[in-house]
Design brief:
α1 runs parallel beside α2 (93-103) and α2 (93-103) runs parallel beside α3. By secondary structure, this protein is of the alpha/beta class. The protein has one domain (11-177, 201-209): TIM Barrel, CATH 3.20.20.70. The chain is built from seven helices and ten strands.
Length: 247
């Protein structure tokens, strides 16, 4: 990850061999400002739990940081909004996406989101401007959702699920869904079968299943092998790629 310091604090990482080629991560939201206080977050504890969208940093400052990085290293092939906070909290995310594409017409743009604001039509429209959207979905049952993701009290899982379906219907880019299962937290049979049914209904372009025990999971335990085998069996006829990312 060379060159990340140029354009800091907004350009936070560089991947030479990412999905789009040479990629940079752009962070328009302060670290640890999020709509979830996930137990498993690799960035550490959430310091400000909020669902209020804001222009945390001036849009020109974020663009200037990307311009500075590109001035030294050349335009990247891809830009990801995958920060230490929830990217969709940035109130000018759609404008940021359009401005980056205007500056770098060949760049591909992706966003990794916890999905908490998908019930907001404006958020769905802004995410829809990206070439790729990856949404975390760790539960389809409210109790499990609140145990593993610990969302802001204003977040409704029902609205998240409705929003995900609406995003899929309107979105023409690459939609990925990922699920993290943690032993004793969201590894119930009901949650698994419910999630599989939901994902089969949404039909993402790719589904990724992972489990506890990875770096950053802060002592959370992986689920039993049999649980993942059941997941694989339930998904064996899925009309989209399914990947298991296990420790």
């Amino acid at each position: 990850m060379n060159g990340a310091a140029v354009g800091a604090p907004f350009v936070t990482a560089v991947r030479e061999r990412g999905r789009f080629g040479r990629e940079i991560s752009v962070n328009p939201v302060p670290r640890a400002v999020c709509s979830h206080a996930c137990r498993h977050c690799p960035c550490g504890p959430t310091e400000r739990l909020t669902v209020d969208r804001a222009e945390f940093f001036p849009l020109p400052a974020v663009l200037a940081a990307v311009d500075a990085w590109a001035g030294v290293h050349g335009a990247p092939d891809g830009v990801w909004f995958d920060c230490g906070g929830e990217p969709s909290l940035y109130a000018r995310l759609g404008e940021l996406t359009c401005c980056l594409r205007h500056r770098m017409p060949n760049v591909r743009i992706g966003v990794r989101s916890n999905g908490s604001l998908l019930g907001d039509a404006a958020v769905r429209r802004e995410l829809g401007l990206c070439n790729a959207v990856r949404v975390s979905l760790n539960a389809c049952i409210d109790d499990d959702y609140r145990r593993i993701d610990r969302p802001h009290r204003a977040v409704s899982l029902e609205q998240v699920l409705i929003g995900l379906r609406l995003l899929r219907k309107a979105y023409c880019g690459m939609l990925e869904v990922d699920t993290l299962f943690v032993r004793g937290v969201n590894d119930t049979e009901v949650n698994l079968t419910g999630l599989v049914g939901l994902v089969l209904d949404v039909r993402p372009d790719r589904y990724v299943i992972s489990t506890g025990g990875r770096a950053g999971d802060r002592g959370l335990l992986p689920v039993a092998a049999g649980y993942l085998e059941t997941a694989a069996r339930l998904l064996e006829a899925a009309p989209f790629p399914v990947t298991f990312d296990t420790p």
